[in-house]
Specification:
By secondary structure, this protein is α/β, with parallel strands linked by helices. 41% of the residues lie in helices and 21% in strands. The protein has two domains: 192 residues, Rossmann fold (3-Layer(aba) Sandwich), CATH 3.40.50.300; 204 residues, 3-Layer(aba) Sandwich (Rossmann fold), CATH 3.40.50.
């Protein structure tokens, strides 16, 4: 169980939330919603014990499983399977049992296996007590359902793509079976089949659940309560309702607040008008002051009417002039150890081209973008920069941001020749105003990091954009702005995404299929493959 009592949450000097009270008990499947930057991720971190609230208390009993937007991993040299099994302590036991088996086989010829057999028996007894072989099967089912096949589970974590690592962490948390689940955008990097499986898994979860997601279908199928973080009022509104009934109730609440405010404003106006008349008479001055005080008290108690949530006016840079073919890839190949990711990839990016890279998770889409962007080296082949090439790279894990720098310092780092006054205006256009520009990038939510990374591109005059999941973590309004900006951008785009809407907005002319490396003309029939890739 999780109890949040009279909590105040701040990001630096910025107040996100005050007097917040909510309880997460067994059977509570709570959707935590609110616009980007409202404080959903920050509050969830506090629920997970990563920091303390500015005021109030958060009490947690029982086990907690927390999936942050940017999943943390442990030892990069351990296998993905061991990483998942480590949630129940089975990884080390399985390795020790394998070692003793080898020892037993080696001592058979010597005729004395007694010691090894005893050690193996003790290890197996502990293994079985922790769920043992049944637990291994359970972990395998979870991993397979999340798009992690056997060949991926055998790989070291360090060789996996960002999407695969996050799925490994999600599988590990679900396998651990905690009493309370805290999941921040769990469907990022999942294909359509995996999302359907996760939806059913969460509906069956008997413990507590706090779910942050911009996937309204997931919220509609899973949650039985909704907690809305209202950024305008710095308040939590708790609705003991399912998703559709919540949407109707919230709109009714807003209409009620507007009616109450309108009535109160009429009363305040009448009091002030009467007070002004009384002030004309010296004998009634005291009564006028009393009316003024009553009007002031009534005004101070007015509920804020929800302002329309501001939306960043996102735009991509005006592309600099370039040659006919600004970027070419010849014979690219990449492997991690014995695992071949792709081989002999050929790609020519023409001026203004719109290219989508498709492939199953782990096919090397992100790796190829990193190679094209000069972040990673290919094992063989070359990337050739054409005349006037200016690259802009958006990384799905926000690798282009420096978390220790502030918002403004990140913009300065990306655009060193741009005056600070212009960068402040740019930050404001992307909704970074006031003290927020001095907030470190590492403390931003996933949606805010996406906006900052996009803002960093604007001053670059890039004529080729490499975009890796640019709509992840964005609320619907911000996502719509990204799609609008994508549709109007005049330069070339190479896009990796699970978002069918992003592909439709791009209106691609070419597709590259991985790991085969096949380049072909785009067909509308391929849209259905985007969510499955």
């Amino acid at each position: 169980m999780l109890i949040c009592s009279d909590v105040e949450v701040r990001a630096g000097a910025r107040l996100l939330l005050e007097h917040a009270t909510v309880t997460v008990g067994p059977g509570d499947r709570i959707g935590l919603v609110g616009r980007n930057g409202a404080g959903k991720t920050t509050l969830t971190r506090l629920f997970a014990g990563e920091g303390e609230p500015a005021a109030g208390t958060i009490t947690v009993t029982g086990t907690v499983g927390y999936l942050p937007q940017e999943a943390k991993v442990g030892d990069l040299t351990e296998s993905a399977r061991d990483r998942v099994l480590s949630a129940r302590g089975l990884d080390s036991l399985a390795r020790d049992m394998a070692k003793v088996q080898i020892e037993m086989a080696a001592t058979v010829s010597e005729g004395d296996t007694t010691g090894a057999v005893r050690r193996y028996g003790r290890l197996e007894e502990r293994f079985v007590a922790l769920g043992g072989y049944e637990a291994e099967h359970e972990a395998a089912v979870i991993c397979s359902s999340l798009g992690l096949p056997e060949r991926v589970l055998e790989q070291q974590v360090g060789t996996l793509s960002g999407g695969q690592r996050r799925r490994v962490e999600l599988a590990r948390i679900l396998f651990a079976g905690p009493q309370t689940l805290l999941l921040d955008e769990p469907t990022n990097h999942l294909d359509a089949d995996s999302i359907l499986w996760l939806r059913d898994f969460l509906r069956r979860h008997v413990g507590g659940l706090v779910l942050i997601s911009h996937d309204v279908e997931l919220l509609g199928h899973v949650v039985n309560k909704v907690v809305h973080l209202d950024a305008n009022r710095s308040a939590l509104d708790v609705y003991n309702l399912g998703w559709q009934r919540y949407l109707r109730a919230r709109e009714e609440d807003e209409r009620r607040r507007r009616r109450e405010r309108a009535n109160a404003e009429k009363q305040i106006g009448a009091m002030k008008a009467q007070a002004d008349k009384m002030r004309a008479s010296a004998t009634r001055a005291r009564q006028a002051q009393n009316l003024d005080r009553r009007a002031a008290r009534l005004a101070s108690g007015l509920a804020e009417v929800r302002a329309s949530d501001r939306v960043a006016r996102l735009r991509f840079p005006t592309p600099a002039p370039c040659g006919k073919v600004p970027l070419t890839a010849n014979g690219l190949a990449k492997s991690y150890g014995s695992l071949e990711v792709f081989t002999d990839v050929e790609l020519a990016i023409d001026r203004g081209a719109r290219v989508v890279i498709l492939g199953l998770n782990g096919a090397g889409k992100t790796t190829l973008l990193r190679i094209l962007g000069g972040v990673e080296r290919a094992d063989s082949g070359e990337v050739v920069a054409g005349h006037g090439l200016k690259l802009g790279y958006f990384a799905q894990e926000h690798d282009t941001l420096r978390p220790e720098l502030t918002v403004l310092e990140n913009l300065q780092h990306a655009n060193p020749d741009t005056p600070v006054t212009e960068l402040r205006s740019l930050a404001g256009a992307f909704l970074f105003t006031g003290e927020v520009v001095h907030q470190s990038a590492g403390t931003l939510s996933g949606g805010e990091k996406t906006r900052l990374a996009l803002a960093s591109l604007v001053g670059s005059s890039a004529n080729v954009l490499l975009l890796d999941e640019p709509t992840n973590n964005l609320d619907p309004a911000s996502r719509a702005e990204v799609l609008r900006a994508l549709a109007s951008y005049q330069g070339a785009v190479v896009l990796v995404t699970h978002d069918e809407g992003a592909v439709t907005a791009l209106n691609p002319d070419k597709v590259l299929l991985l790991p085969e490396g096949t380049e072909d003309h785009w067909s509308a029939d391929l849209v259905d493959l985007v969510a499955l890739a």
